[in-house]
Amino acid sequence: MARRRALTDLAVQKLSPPEKGQRDHFDPNYPGLVVRASHGGRKTWVFMFRVGHRLRRMTLGTYPAMSLAEARQAWREARSEVEAGRDPSRVKERATTDVDGVVAEWLRRDQAKNRSAPQTARKIERHVLPVWGHRDITDIRRRDVLDLIDEIADRGAPVEARRVHAHLHRLFKWAVGRGIVESNPLQDLPKPGEEVSRDRVLSDDELVSVWNAAGELPWYHGQIVRLLILTGTRREEIGQLRWSETRDDRIELQGARTKNGKSHLIPLSAPARSILSELPHINGSDYVFTLDGMKPVTSWSRNKKELDKISGITGWQVRDLRRTVATGLQRLGVRIEVTEAVLNHVSGARGGIVGVYQTHDYLDEKREALEAWGAKVVGLVEGRESGKVVPLRAAP
After folding, report:
1. What 3-state class would DSSP assign to 318?
2. Which of 98, 109, 134, 346 lies 20 to 30 Å from 202, alpha-carbon distance?
3. What angle do CA 349, 350, 353 make, to 5 degrees?
4. Is 194 among the domain residues?
5. Which residues of the chain have pLDDT under 50?
6. Is residue 236 within 8 Å of residue 224, measured between CB atoms?
7. How far apart are the first and last CA of the chain?
8. What is the pLDDT of residue 249?
9. Does 188 reside within a domain?
10. What pLDDT does residue 222 have?
């Protein structure tokens, strides 16, 4: 929804974020100049203009890094390009060295093919652009980086600070290669704190408790958790699963759907096939886990909290299920290279020169391993090995 009222420094400062989405506030005396308030709290200066019959828009900067006065000056410069018959967004794309513009180009040219690109963009938009957005990237010094990283760490978010450090290091390395800056201010700059490697593995009793609690969740999240336990796949690989990726006895994921970009064949054990066979098809959608047929389900955090509450098991993350599956397979005597194939790992026994020349997909070995693991899980859940007797239950 767009709103038109005279903008002042105080008015821009006091703009409250909308409950969802974005809200545009036009500056009436500067046609096309807009401050866009987003749900997350970010305020962005945008210039809307026409080239021929096409309506276009370009980002001028972010508030408060770019003040109202600076936004209006940027508007004047962009408008003069429009009046001269040129597209100011193209001119800026070729010439800009402000952080906002360089980041946009970096995300498009260097990060677009990465599966983690949306998360990278969100971290940069949250932590970097509000502080540096309209500064010239050639003016960013090592002290600026230290101040930014330290401020994040001092808020009690050292892991987030390390992530931002890594993203900025990559950004400046790319900028050096493009001739935008002369040097990388993060070169040899240590990351803050220490990142502890996780080694959480659920015990048999904990695994049974989580399985049983999953049956108390909404069917979609509960069955996702159970399939993660049975397959050792990543959360998004099951959460965003499509019916077109399933076969009678396996799941076939293309490289675009996996973290490492490698296609992945996931044999389905008997209990996994049983779960999939009883899942509903929503509105003819290709998504397996969806409520409206338009997009896969989300709300992971809320349902994970509910899962912990019901199960009584805390201090673990969904990704720890992969480690639990790997540990379980090793206890069953599965060879390490087969376990890595189940997890779609290309490091360790399947890395290096072996990974280049060894093209065996281990499909039969993976099927045997996951059938044994599925039988183990069923045995635990049904109380034949440990845990309480709770029958397998699929979607309602």
Report:
1. coil
2. 346
3. 105
4. no
5. 1, 93-95, 348-359, 386-396
6. no
7. 40
8. 92
9. no
10. 94
